[in-house]
């Protein structure tokens, strides 16, 4: 173990030294600030293995107006592993960590992230927000209707499609749904909180009726299946969980929703699927879908 750690440390030092040399060469070869900043940011990202990075400077010049201001600073460079980040992709970044770092003047390391203060004054009611979560848009839908004419989406590049195309697996566990592939709301189950049920390549909509496929039956299941899957280790790479209308605080209380989370989340955190690199996302919108993407462990 000590030899392994020493090897890793030596490799990290050699990488940092090589990157530092590259930065010095860049400084000696160009006076273009953004080129230098991009080199610096790329080097930091390689050392830290970050997926994205941003550099902010106090700069009021019009030349620095590619990105908007954050906490009184200007975002001068945004990079990901492929290169530059488009301006449109920068607009949605969380600024809470930036503001905290600016206010304290100290390094801020985060183990969890909170999208504090998020509010969308346009996309209402519930269903379009849920569709956004798995498709990146709401396809013009602004109602809570069950799947049917005008409420079926023909897209074939939503999250479930992309997961399968990547050779990974997914499943949504819907509390109080009962039989798999539930396309009609009943009792405490609301399809409006089950976004996968609205895609034609899952629900089997042929323009007149539904022809639910095996794909739908295998991937849209009742929440009661989760305990058995956790116990057997048969948990997909991506899991989307929706509590019923009482436990998601829609028709119930905040205290009731908190009590449900306090019972259910520890089971997830104790599972091998989570322990083996699976992140957890809890969204209150105003309900409580719980997403457990574990694809990072593959």
Topology:
Layout: H1 2-29, H2 33-48, E1 52-57, E2 69-70, E3 73-80, E4 83-84, H3 87-90, H4 96-104, H5 126-135, H6 159-165, E5 170-174, H7 200-203, H8 214-219, E6 220-222, H9 225-232, E7 238-242, H10 254-269, H11 272-275, E8 281-282, E9 290-293
Parallel strand pairs: 5-6, 5-7
Antiparallel strand pairs: 1-3, 2-3, 3-4, 7-9, 8-9
Helix pairs in contact: 1-2
Q: What share of the residues does DSSP label as strand, in percent? A: 5-15%
- Counting helices, strands and paired strands, the structural category is alpha+beta
- Please give the largest β-sheet: 5 strands, mixed
Helix count, DSSP H or I runs of 4 or more residues: 11
User: What is the number of domains?
Assistant: 2
Low-confidence stretches: 1-13, 293-298
Mean of pLDDT: 77
- What is the strand tally? 9
Order of helices and strands: HHEEEEHHHHEHHEHEHHEE
Widest β-sheet, arrangement of strands: 6-5-7-9-8
Residue share in helices?
A: 25-40%
- Mind telling me the C-alpha Rg? 23 Å
What is the global morphology? elongated
Terminal CA distance reads 24 Å
Structural descriptors:
about 300 residues; alpha+beta; 2 domains; 5-stranded mixed β-sheet; 4-stranded antiparallel β-sheet; 11 helices; 9 strands; about 10% strand; disordered N terminus
Structure description:
By secondary structure, this protein is α+β, with helices and mostly antiparallel strands. The protein has two domains: 2-104, no CATH class; 126-297, no CATH class. 38% of the residues lie in helices and 12% in strands. The strands form two sheets. The chain has a five-stranded mixed β-sheet with strand order 6-5-7-9-8. Strands 1, 2, 3 and 4 form a four-stranded antiparallel β-sheet that branches. Strand 3 (73-80) and strand 4 form a beta hairpin. The longest helix is centred in the first third of the chain and has 28 residues, at 2-29. Residues 1-13 and 293-298 have low confidence and may be disordered.
């Amino acid at each position: 173990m000590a030899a392994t750690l020493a090897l890793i440390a030596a490799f990290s030092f050699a990488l940092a030294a090589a990157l530092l040399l590259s930065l010095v060469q860049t400084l000696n070869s160009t006076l273009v600030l953004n080129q230098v900043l991009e080199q610096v940011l790329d080097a930091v990202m390689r050392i830290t293995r970050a997926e994205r990075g941003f550099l902010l400077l106090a700069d009021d010049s019009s030349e620095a107006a590619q990105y908007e201001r954050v906490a009184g600073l200007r975002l001068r460079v945004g990079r990901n592993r492929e290169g530059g980040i488009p301006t449109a992709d920068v607009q949605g970044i969380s600024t809470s960590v930036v503001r905290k770092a600016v206010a304290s003047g100290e390094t801020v390391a985060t183990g969890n992230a909170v999208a504090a203060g998020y509010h969308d004054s346009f996309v209402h009611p519930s269903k379009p927000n849920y569709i956004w979560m798995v498709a990146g848009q709401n396809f013009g839908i602004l109602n809570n209707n069950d799947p049917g004419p005008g409420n079926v989406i023909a897209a074939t590049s939503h999250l479930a499609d992309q997961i399968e195309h990547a050779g990974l697996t997914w499943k949504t566990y819907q509390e109080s749904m009962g039989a798999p592939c539930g396309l009609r709301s009943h009792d405490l189950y609301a399809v409006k909180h089950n976004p996968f049920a609205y895609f034609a390549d899952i629900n089997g909509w042929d323009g007149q009726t539904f022809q639910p496929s095996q794909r739908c039956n295998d991937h849209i299941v009742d929440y009661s299946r989760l305990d058995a899957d956790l116990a057997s280790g048969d948990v997909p790479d991506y899991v989307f969980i929706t509590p019923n209308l009482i436990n998601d605080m829609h028709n119930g209380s905040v205290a009731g929703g908190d009590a449900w989370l306090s019972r259910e989340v520890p089971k997830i955190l104790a599972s091998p699927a989570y322990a083996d690199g699976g992140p957890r996302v809890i969204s209150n919108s105003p309900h409580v879908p719980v997403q457990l993407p574990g694809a990072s462990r593959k």
